[in-house]
Design brief:
- This is UBA domain-containing protein.
- InterPro entries: NUB1, UBA, UBA-like_sf.
- The chain is mostly helical.
- It folds into three domains: 142 residues, no CATH class; 43 residues, Helicase, Ruva Protein, domain 3 (Orthogonal Bundle), CATH 1.10.8; 64 residues, Helicase, Ruva Protein, domain 3.
- 71% of the residues lie in helices and 0% in strands.
- Helix 1 crosses helix 2.
- The N terminus is likely disordered.
Length: 323
């Protein structure tokens, strides 16, 4: 009976993850647009975009969405619901090729969030599983950030934005070690967490100076912590961050407009979207945009075949009838 229940639970979980993937795949143009058109992207610690196979990308995006949902529940102190979403997110990430995601820290952070839920639910039955999650999280962070965060600090120009993350990790490691009877190890973890806690305190004067320059209190605190209370460094970081946000907003608007264009042009016989880069190339030769899009759509984005149709009077007339 227990085996049957476990199997049923696994199947239910897989079905729910599949449903999430299906819903996500229909987010743009009813699933007709290529996977590259999804607007969730991962970066490694260098800020470089990480490229994946379509299968891995879809699983990762599903994991990220479920992780976001879990964090939302955590903020609402709905820890049972958060744990359910995070567990599904972990399962979604497990469908990826491990090599594809070993240098990003999303999965270790998800595992820390899961253990935080165990902690807040005060469920001692999870102690062994929690310890394993924390071990995997530390190993994952070490791969992503480098030993003792060396790679992360080099890339972040000496900033310590990972400090709060390691504070949470060590606090939870201390709790797990204590309940496992490893009291010396627990004291070591908790002492290290306390040291990081004091490092993260922000003086009111520094906070007032940064907020006085027009930045929000939350952003000011975060960047002052990252920069070890260096006001100039914090302000410089916030300025660059604001510029990046604005650039991303413009990129998102442009991409949404492109997606709307692709939806308007329809899909090829093989259900692919019209390639906008090839469309631009054909239009630059002198053909009308709608007509060029129809030629590419009809010919599976084959530029040469599209040009053949556009320059053939009979085929051109047929294209015009279709638009």
């Amino acid at each position: 009976m227990n085996c049957w229940l476990m199997m049923k639970g696994t199947v239910d979980l897989a079905c729910r993850i599949k449903a999430a993937v299906t819903a996500l795949s229909k987010r743009h143009a009813d699933g007709a647009l290529p996977i590259e058109d999804f607007d969730i992207q991962l970066e490694d610690q260098s800020g470089n975009k990480v490229h994946f196979s379509e299968t891995d990308r879809l699983a990762i995006m599903t994991g990220l969405m479920l992780h976001t949902s879990g964090k939302r529940f955590i903020r609402k102190q709905m820890f049972t619901e958060a744990l359910e979403a995070l567990t599904m997110g972990e399962e979604a990430f497990s469908l990826c090729n491990p090599k594809s995601i070993e240098l990003v820290d999303n999965i270790p952070i998800l595992k820390i969030d899961m253990v935080w839920c165990y902690f807040m639910l005060r469920d001692i039955a999870w102690i062994t599983v929690a310890g394993l999650h924390l071990k995997n999280a530390r190993e994952g962070l070490e791969r992503a950030h480098g030993k003792d965060s060396s790679r992360f600090r080099l890339l972040q120009a000496g900033r310590t934005s990972e400090l709060a993350l390691y504070l949470r990790l060590e606090l939870l490691e201390g709790v797990v070690a204590y309940h496992s009877g490893q009291f010396d190890k627990s004291r070591k973890f908790l002492a290290s967490a306390q040291e990081k806690f004091f490092q993260l305190q922000v003086p009111d004067e520094a906070l007032s100076l940064v907020t006085g320059m027009g930045f929000g209190e939350g952003d000011a605190k975060r960047t002052l912590r990252m920069s070890n209370q260096d006001i100039q460094s914090a302000v410089n970081f916030l300025v660059v961050e604001r510029e990046k946000r604005e650039q991303k907003r413009e990129d998102d608007i442009r991409r949404r407009n492109e997606i709307m264009q692709q939806k308007r042009y329809g899909v090829t016989p093989l259900k692919k979207a019209v390639d906008l880069q090839r469309l631009t190339e054909v239009v630059s030769i002198g053909f009308e945009k709608e007509l060029a899009a129809e030629a590419l759509r009809k010919n599976e984005n084959d530029t040469q075949k599209a040009l053949d149709d556009l320059t053939n009077p009979e085929a051109n007339t047929a294209l015009q009838r279709n638009i």
